[in-house]
Automatic annotation (TrEMBL):
Primary location group: membrane
Protein name, as recorded: Polysaccharide biosynthesis associate
Entry GO CC: plasma membrane
Taxonomic lineage: Bacteria, Pseudomonadati, Pseudomonadota, Alphaproteobacteria, Hyphomicrobiales
Species in which this protein is naturally found: Pelagibacterium halotolerans (strain DSM 22347 / JCM 15775 / CGMCC 1.7692 / B2)
Keywords: Cell membrane, Membrane, Transmembrane, Transmembrane helix
């Protein structure tokens, strides 16, 4: 039975090598894959070097502030990043330049207003609410909320009007290299050790300068054109579309970021630092699926709506087969060398090893489940998908709140891993039942009918 299953896997792998659809997909997505892989590696190194540039306690405060700002930036954009990615290319194809400029400008206004108000709330919390120690890191986190929201929205704008390179390189590559250079100055003794507040302020200023240069690089996003150019608006239509996109994004981002926030509130900064490092390290397991998902999503949408279900199955199987082996290798590396990897962040970070294993197991389930998110979002199943991730993430937050006071960071890690695994399994069952598609690695071992 096992040998027969392996034979089917080998046969399908050979078929992929000679498939025209797969070859075109691979060629078209190479740039995105290279940039995302490089960016993910730099992200890990950036957080590692930030940890080396401050104490464990300060890194815990930094992790709390960064996670809070990340979640609020997603909330404050109200889904307009995904919306502009959907509408701007369509308006361009129709020659509706004023509508294209309008949706881009409107998204900037929403982002500045939403993230700005939330950022001011964080600044006020740091200034007024007692119990946060030195409040300056929260004040800096408020500013970072606005800048990060703008960076995220603008990346979607650039992807919609220019393509992958100008969309991803500024933040994923240039910004992270600048932050790493600043940390390097601290590590060689030319600059004093960072506090959490200083680190947040530094990454905020660096990101602002990067996205300013990015905006100036394209005529559509330069301030003069963006502000004074003739534009048309369909605000009601855009908001109607944005709400569903926004809900899905917020819910998906909630559990891991809220886990860090809850650990910071319920435990101590010394416990928060290693947990934040463990979460960021475990995210490396999603690198291959995330990169492949960017490439395969448009193809899934195109072939599904042509009712070419066999091609969609093939795309899913190709994706999960491509990510399975490297993801398993990273997971095994964490099992045997996780303590040593966490020790690279600094002394005391090895305490996050147990959390790292649990989080990695959840991320492994996510990777081996295949492009579940793309299947749900690209085939018209957005509402069932939102219900699934909403229910599973609410349960995950209940687990986090219940177990963290008892088991510390292990309890928080269990909650995050549970939520990640549960929604993926639910999506697989839904796709099998309603579409006849299994996006998971299990499809490689099934007989063809």
């Amino acid at each position: 039975m096992i040998s027969a299953a392996l034979g089917r896997v080998r046969a399908r792998a050979a078929a992929f090598a000679n498939d025209d659809v797969m070859a075109k997909l691979a060629r078209g997505g190479l740039a995105a894959l290279v940039i995302k892989v490089g960016g993910a590696g730099l992200s890990f190194l950036m957080f590692l070097m930030l940890a080396r540039a401050m104490s464990v306690e300060e890194y815990g405060r930094f992790g709390f502030a960064f996670s809070l700002a990340t979640l609020l930036a997603v909330i404050g954009t109200f889904g307009f990043g995904s919306l502009v990615l959907r509408y701007a290319p369509a308006y361009d194809a129709d020659g509706a330049t004023e509508m294209q400029r309008g949706v881009i400008r409107y998204g900037y206004i929403v982002t500045v207003a939403g993230c700005g108000i939330l950022g001011l709330g964080v600044v006020g919390m740091g200034a007024i609410v007692p119990g946060f120690g030195h409040p300056y890191y929260l004040m800096a986190a408020g500013a970072f909320t606005l800048v990060l929201g703008l960076a995220e929205y603008q990346a979607h704008v650039m992807r919609a009007i220019t393509g992958i390179t100008l969309s991803l390189v500024p933040r994923d590559i240039i910004w992270r290299l600048i932050v790493m250079a600043g940390c390097g100055l601290v590590m060689i003794g030319l600059v004093p050790d960072f506090t959490a507040g200083a680190a947040m302020a530094f990454i905020t200023v660096a990101l602002f300068l990067v996205i300013l240069g990015q905006a100036l690089a394209h005529p559509m996003t330069r301030p003069d054109s963006l502000v004074s150019g003739t534009a048309s608006f369909e605000g009601t239509k855009w908001w109607s579309t944005a709400w569903g996109l926004w809900g899905t994004m917020v819910v998906r981002m909630a559990a891991p970021n809220l886990a860090v926030i809850f650990v910071g509130l319920m435990l101590s900064p010394i416990a928060t630092g290693p947990f934040f490092a463990a979460i960021r390290t475990a995210m490396l397991l999603n690198l291959f699926l995330m990169s492949s998902g960017m490439v395969v999503a448009p193809a899934i949408a195109r072939h599904f709506h042509r009712n070419e279900i066999d091609v969609v199955r093939k795309l899913c199987l190709m994706t999960v087969a491509a990510v399975a082996i490297p993801t398993l290798m990273v997971f095994i590396t964490f099992v045997f060398f996780g303590r040593e990897i966490l020790s690279l962040f600094g002394e005391g970070f090895e305490s996050g090893y147990g959390a790292l294993l649990i989080l990695s197991a959840g991320n492994l389930v996510n990777a081996l489940s295949g492009p579940t998110a793309q299947i749900m979002e690209m085939t018209g199943a957005e509402r069932p998908y939102l219900r699934m991730i909403l229910v599973t993430n609410i349960l995950a937050l209940i687990v986090i709140l219940s177990l963290t006071p008892v088991f510390g960071v292990i309890g928080a890690a269990i909650g995050v891993a549970f939520g990640m695994s549960a929604w993926n399994i639910w999506c697989i069952l839904y796709a099998r039942k309603t579409m006849g598609i299994d996006p998971s690695i299990l499809a490689a071992f099934q007989r063809r009918t």
